[in-house]
Design brief:
Layout: H1 7-40, E1 50-67, E2 70-79, E3 85-88, H2 95-99, E4 105-111, E5 124-125, E6 127-131, E7 134-137, H3 139-171
Parallel strand pairs: 3-5
Antiparallel strand pairs: 1-2, 1-4, 2-3, 4-6, 6-7
Helix pairs in contact: 1-3
């Protein structure tokens, strides 16, 4: 155990102080750059890059998507008229009950040329949801939700990190 007057303790504290004084500001600024790059990333397709799919629901499965310690509900549907499985991220509760009603007609949108990886359980990601003629999630709202993190949250985090880095740099 190191004593308060031990030279090794003083040296360790000096090294820790040096690292804290010299590395925190650049690390904060580097993190700000990462969030800035994320904010410039196109996270959702443009409406003209999507095509409508429609059909009668054959199968519905509720799943949980978990990442970074957070879980979100999702729905995987299969339509009678299409061989693919489609991934729907609900924005309100009750979607699954509507989709389980026999002969439920669904309209949604998928990418014409998929640029996203399969969303979950080999299902194609969708935007917007119309059930039996009623839009539960409009295409615009769905795209806006996908873009919210990249175009709102990331820039705010980048600004705070950059400001903290500059303040830390100017303090020393």
């Amino acid at each position: 155990m190191l004593e308060p007057d031990d030279p090794d303790l003083a040296e360790a504290q000096a090294i820790g102080g040096f690292l804290r004084d010299r590395l925190v500001a650049p690390l904060l600024c580097a993190a700000a750059v990462v969030f800035l790059i994320l904010s410039l990333h196109k996270s959702a397709p443009e409406p003209e890059e999507l095509t409508e799919i429609s059909g009668t629901v054959r199968d519905v499965n509720a799943v949980q998507e978990c990442s970074w310690g957070f879980c979100n509900p999702a729905i995987i549907i299969t339509l009678d008229e299409a061989p693919d499985r489609y991934h729907i991220r609900p924005t309100a509760t009750g979607f699954i009950y509507l989709l389980r009603i026999p002969h439920t007609a669904v309209r949604t949108y998928v990418e014409k040329q998929p640029s996203f990886e399969e969303a979950h359980l080999d299902a194609t990601k969708t935007w917007g949801l119309c059930v039996n003629g009623k839009w539960l999630v409009t295409l615009e709202d769905s795209l806006r939700t996908d873009n919210f993190f990249a175009h709102t949250v990331c820039p705010i985090i980048a600004i705070f990190l950059a400001a903290a880095g500059v303040v830390r740099f100017l303090e020393k």
